Amino acid sequence: MTSSMKLPATFLSFSSHQPRGSSHCSVASAAYAAEPRLSEGAVVSKKTPRPKFEPSIWADFFLSYSNPLAYSDNQRSMEERAEYLKKEVAKLIVNSRTDSLPEKLHLIDVLERLCVDHLFEEEINAVMDEISDADVSDCELHTFRDEDGIFEAEDARDLLSLYNAAHLTTHGEGILDEAISFTKKQLRSLMPKVVEGSLAHDINSALEIPLPRRVRIYESNYFMSTYEKGASVNEMIMELAKLGYNFMQIHHQQELKIITRLSNLFLLKLCSILINVKNVFYMCVQVVEEFATRNKALLC
């Protein structure tokens, strides 16, 4: 992987090797090994404690690591494939205007959870404009409550969707606060009965941190694995999401390589400065000691 490699700009708007021993410790040890020693009878007689530098968790691993996908030929083919898939998925979104409202919402939700929605902002906005003009009177939140105003819902997946959506509430929206309390209680009671592994995971994750409050790029990594196994998976969207994730991984590895190199240079410079500061300090101590010896009477 070379530092000059460029990644597709569209994917930069998203976020088995063992690391070797850190060179930070060896640099610090060499610097302090060269420090001057106090002469006998010096004012500062205590040995100065040496700071302990915690090694980096990745050490110099990224300085020599090269991602196989980062080679120019591989990257070029990935970019070409990504551009083709973007055009095809864009057509898919445009054609979804004839689909039912739930199908449109499901498609947009998949794109968002896979972190590729930023590639289709114009197409998604056009679909959302159509949805905002649609008649959704049958889908109002009040229709999910009985005559006494109590929420009615039993399906675990429906409850999970309502629970996550309700966390988009703003201050003063009491009905959404009630929806959160109701769905949280229902989901906790349904947990022992949920058999599907991915649904159980989604419920547990939502009860810990609701979906709108999670870091999307981390969430997308898990969602890829569950969406790929689902019956409604779209292969083009799935492949585009994987390419986007690989591009971001290469980009972050490049950044870590640069940070590691700069941190090593900074540490060398810092150690050099510290040695110079200590030399000046010891010289000052010696000057004060000599002055005190020659002028004992004056100081008393």
Automatic annotation (TrEMBL):
Pfam families: Terpene_synth (PF01397). It comes from the Eukaryota. Residues 57-133, 135-207 form the Terpene synthase N-terminal domain. InterPro entries: Isoprenoid_synthase_dom_sf (IPR008949), Terpene_synth_N (IPR001906), Terpene_synth_N_sf (IPR036965), Terpene_synthase-like (IPR050148), Terpenoid_cyclase/PrenylTrfase (IPR008930). Gene3D superfamilies: Farnesyl Diphosphate Synthase, Terpene synthase, N-terminal domain. One of its GO terms (biological process) is terpenoid biosynthetic process. One of its GO terms (molecular function) is terpene synthase activity. PANTHER family: ALPHA-HUMULENE_(-)-(E)-BETA-CARYOPHYLLENE SYNTHASE, OS04G0344100 PROTEIN-RELATED. This is Terpene synthase N-terminal domain-containing protein. It comes from Oryza meridionalis.
